[in-house]
Amino acid sequence: MVTISPVAHKLLNYVPFLLVLIDLRYDGVNGGKDGGVENHLEMGKKLLAAGQLADALSHFHAAVDGDPKNYLAYYRRATVYLAMGKSKSALPDLSKVIELKPDFTSARLQRGNLLLKHGKLDEAESDFKKVLKSNPSSREEQEAQSQLKKSDELQRLVGQAQSDFSRRDYGSAVSHLDIIIDTCVWDADSREMRAECFIQLSEMGKAISDLKAASKLKSDNTQAFYKLSTIYYNLGDHEMSLNEVRECLKLDPDHKLCFSHYKQVKKLNKQIQAAEELIQQQMYSDAASKYESVMKTEPNVLQFIVNAKERMCHCLSKDQQTAKAISVCSEVLKADPQNVNALKDRAEAYLQDDQYEEAIKDFESAKEHSENDRQIKEGLERAQRLRKQSQKRDYYKILGVKRTAQKKEILKAYRKLAQQWHPDNFQDAEEKKKAEKKFIDIAQAKEVLTDPEMRSKFDQGEDPMDPESQQGGGHHHHHGGWQNFQGFNPFGSGPFNFKFNFN
Q1: What torsion do the CA atoms of 434, 440, 445, 448 make, to the nearest 10 degrees?
Q2: pLDDT tens digits for 154-191?
Q3: Which of 238, 223, 220, 216 is nearest to 87 (CA)?
Q4: CB burial class (10 A; 0-12, 13-18, 19+) of residue 61?
Q5: pLDDT of res. 9
Q6: Separation CA 437–CA 480 (nearest Å)
Q7: 321 Cβ neighbours under 8 A, 6+ residues apart
Q8: Which has the closest alpha carbon to 244: 201, 271, 214?
Q9: Confidence of residue 219 (pLDDT cuts 50, 70, 90)
Q10: Is pLDDT at 487 greater than 50 in this prediction?
């Protein structure tokens, strides 16, 4: 089953008329041909009229094979090719028709129109002029005159576009090429020139579109594939760059530029893939080192540098290398202030460093550029809770450790402070009372930060030791002595038991 394009539908509207015209011209000229060829032509005609293009094409192939000098077989096959959008295949058949029957004006007019669409203006003009000299019908004459006028205008525009291009007036060249390509839709040369203009104007998306079309319109177009690969490379898209340069090497395995570029892109692609696999395995420090290698492999393309630093920013933030993460993320944001990923990762690093205001600013900035990102919304709410929490009681500050501290560091800090502030070390009543409060805070900080569940709650902005915080209360529970913490006794029985060994 062949899908018929809108253009094919238009062509099929003319099929009955063309077939009648052909039959009238054909009557009495080829009446004695082989019956097998006639059968194929008849069957092909019926299938073409019914829109069954692939089946019709098979019959016309058979008719051409059965009688290579039958101009009608070539013409009907060309009609099917046109209906299928295969203009390249239609052109040789139309040329064969004209060779076998030079006065067949319909074929010459069709060929002229195809040549015009392919941008072969001189050849198209020649066909239109010959149509006008061959006693055409009024309809053919009118069409030939119209197309000849259009061909003349297009030739003028091509000259103007080339002049603009040589003067580096790329904007004007594009304006002329737009008009040319609107008619010469299958003209690879005009598309390649416009693509080069777009490259000079830094409109890479439009350049890519034209080069992709040119790679299909011109056989063995290694130059288009090479340019596509280099554009994608300079945009930092290593995967698409690799795909396009491989297409170039499929056409010419010995293409020097493509092969050299392929080796570079392949090496870079391998390093990036390895780094991303390390991130998946949560081996963030190794992944950051791998991205440093990426920057050494390609130090000259800004986008690869920015992309590598963005991923390093993520890895360092995840690995809780706070200061380095903030520094690298800031470098990314200097080059790309709206980089949402870098804003999120720097915000997380700021939180690790207790820089709540900075974290909130980054989350708010990220939210402006990505309103529906749930991660940003949750991060902003968490940062706001932590800022509020920091104005009350901060267990990390009580023990003098960072948010990234491991359990071993927390216990070490706790033992040192517990020994320093143990109430038995103080004789004066006021000092002992002050030490009691301090000691309770130290003991509670240790209890929260060494329990994974309670520490997680605290890191989300919730104080697991504060009943009001647990219930969503908004004000701090001030403690006035041992009894105020629901029977909390750091020296005796109850929910917590502390033993000290000061030796």
Answers
A1: -160
A2: 999 999 999 999 999 999 999 999 999 999 999 999 99
A3: 216
A4: middle
A5: 53
A6: 7
A7: 285, 288
A8: 214
A9: confident
A10: no
Tell me the C-alpha distance between 313 and 311, whole Å: 5
Residue 284 identity (one-letter amino acid): Y
Nearest CA to 474 among 394, 392, 397, 412? 392
Tokens of 148: 């000849």
Q: Is the pLDDT of residue 307 over 70?
A: yes
Contact present, 269 and 238 (Cβ < 8 Å): yes
Amino acid (one-letter) located at 24: L
- Evaluate if residue 218 carries a pLDDT over 80: yes
Q: How many helical (H) and strand (E) elements, i.e. helices and strands, does the chain have? A: 25, 0
Alpha helices in 184-255 (DSSP H): 188-200, 204-217, 222-234, 238-251
Between CA 22 and CA 211 the distance in angstroms is 39
What distance in Å separates the CA atoms of residue 488 and residue 466, rounded to the nearest whole number? 12
Quote the CA–CA distance of 51 and 204 in Å, as a whole number: 40
Q: Which two tokens stand for residue 294?
A: 């990426």
Q: Cα–chain-centroid distance for residue 376? A: 22
Tell me the C-alpha distance between 411 and 449, whole Å: 9
**In this prediction, what percent of the chain has a pLDDT beyond 70?**
86
